[in-house]
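Is it possible to get an amino acid sequence alongside its tokenized fold?
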Amino acid sequence: MREQVRDYYGDVLQSSGDLKSDACCEISAPEPHIRDALTNIHPDVANKYYGCGLIAPEDITGKRVLDLGCGTGRDVFLLAQLVGETGEVVGVDMTDNQLAVALEHETWHADRFGYAKPNTRFLKGYIEALDQLDLEAGSFDLIISNCVINLSTDKPAVFAGVRHLLKPDGVMHFADVYAERAVPEDLRTDPVLYGECLAGALAWSDFLAIAEDTGFDAPELVDHRPLAISDDALIEKLDGLKFVSATVELRPAPANDAPRQETGDPFTLPSPHAPSSGSCCG
């Protein structure tokens, strides 16, 4: 599936408007300071944004951040402004075409932000193999991912790698797509459904189990909304299977304290957001 995902995001999709669902629409309207920061993102970077949530936690000045599946770097360059010149944001992606866009505009963004040099770094690699990259264990305050983990073929390895790289008081703040139940086996390898972030989506219950098994406390559900799928062929294939986009925070499980209670199932809790009625990416 890696080759199919690389081809879908590197060659098939020319912009976020080519997607067949509203998975890449952000859940909530950004705060004014985030909207201002987004205006500093180069159009070539923004036009190839495929995230499903707004990954911009508060109070991260001076922090060290890792973005899993950074693509062209939209979130990297957004957070580079929020961490300030003393912070650092590292992006990891496996797609050459996406990384080329990010690297081409790295200096442009530093100049735009008024920084003496870029506070960003981009690495080619797989999010399932973070231990093979030049990344120090326990060195990140914040690890983010924006609609990428569902594309991974080894999700437990992703979460284990994140747990290894986070500081003891670090946070994983990420958006992803979840299915109301396990995606049927015959749909899991469909290249379009996979590229659209649907076929690889975890059932929420499976996500909870993987998070616990890899050393995280119970998740905090930050925001969520149901997904809308506009393509008739995909609707027929899915046969009523429902999906949500959810933004979640995970923290390393404490050594001795009782685990925190998780904040609920996005398929049973009312969502403050309706599905999008059209393209809203970028």
About this structure: Residues 8-18, 277-282 have pLDDT under 50 and may be disordered. The beta strands are 64-68, 88-93, 120-124, 140-146, 166-179, 202-203, 220-226, 243-250. Residues 2-12 form the longest helix (11 residues).
